Amino acid sequence: MKILFYDAVNYDKESFDKELQNYEGIEITYQEIDISPKTVSLAAGYDAICAFVNSDLSAPVIDRLHEIGISLILLRCAGFNNVDLKKTEEYGMTVLRVPGYSPEAVAELAMTLALSVNRHLHKSYIRVRENNFSLVGLTGINFYQKTAGIVGTGKIGAAMCRICRGFGMRVIAYDMYPNKELDFVEYMSLEDVLKQSDLLSLHCPLTGETRHLINKDTIAMMKDDVVLVNTSRGGLVKTEDLIQGIRSKKFFGVGLDVYEEEGDNVFENREDELLEHSVTARLLSFPNVIVTSHQGFLTREALAAISRTTLQNALDYEQGTIDRVNLVEP
């Protein structure tokens, strides 16, 4: 099987090449550019393509993939909201993903963001490098005996629940399907979670129902001085409303590994550009906001798991033994 990898960077190549030694009959070609209507033709002659979380797998791209004979789309990520599933179903194309590469990796970054913005590490780090040892403006809050609200308790949300419990926090959660293994978690309505949380962490998928879950109305329900963290999908938060909430001093701190405008920024070096009209630039202007570049998955263990599952998905497809847990269906 010949697979073309789009949007491949050094850590992808290193991780997949290492795992590839265990999979005979699979040949990978890496392309640094991402898939788009202009670059989809590069996949001609391949059996499958492998794309990432922000790759363009819209209807025009799916149409062209079908025309050149691609029947398998491998996603080396958990999210699939960037795929036009109606089109893939129409053409009988198979879409396979990596739903559970390392829940702990993402949850650990979520807590890292919460702790960092709470204790102002982004500010103190820069100060000390400039020989400024003042503590003014660096006062944080204890998480111990505070309430952590987790929205979505799948594998990543469950890992976050366990981390928060380890910090001595009361853990409450909202999920349409409560996780029975989390016997220490108090499940309640979304409104109650919003009202009671000192730390609010988002771990739910982006769907039509969850888009802009965090908006001016839900922000109004939150406690004053809440810490908000989003490591799930940028579209869960309506950015303009979040900015208004930050300006009105609703939040003690905000930590974002994902955000609505990330498509043009994520994984790219734009240090020589001016983001004059960018919502991202507005977020970065606030002293109590930390934004990272969608790096929740970026641990050695997670990359190894992503590589193994993706290659196994390709092998299973070829052998007709697809793991339905990894199968993306409309």
Q: Could you report the average pLDDT, rounded to the nearest whole number?
A: 94
Q: What share of the residues does DSSP label as strand, in percent? A: 5-15%
CATH homologous group name of the largest domain: NAD(P)-binding Rossmann-like Domain
The value of Rg in angstroms is 21 Å
Provide the fold topology.
Elements: E1 2-5, H1 10-20, E2 27-30, E3 48-51, H2 59-67, E4 72-75, H3 85-90, E5 94-96, H4 103-118, H5 121-129, E6 147-151, H6 155-166, E7 170-174, E8 186-187, H7 190-196, E9 199-202, H8 216-221, E10 226-230, H9 239-247, E11 251-256, H10 279-284, E12 289-291, H11 300-319
Parallel strand pairs: 1-2, 1-3, 3-4, 4-5, 6-7, 6-9, 7-8, 9-10, 10-11, 11-12
Helix pairs in contact: 1-11, 4-6
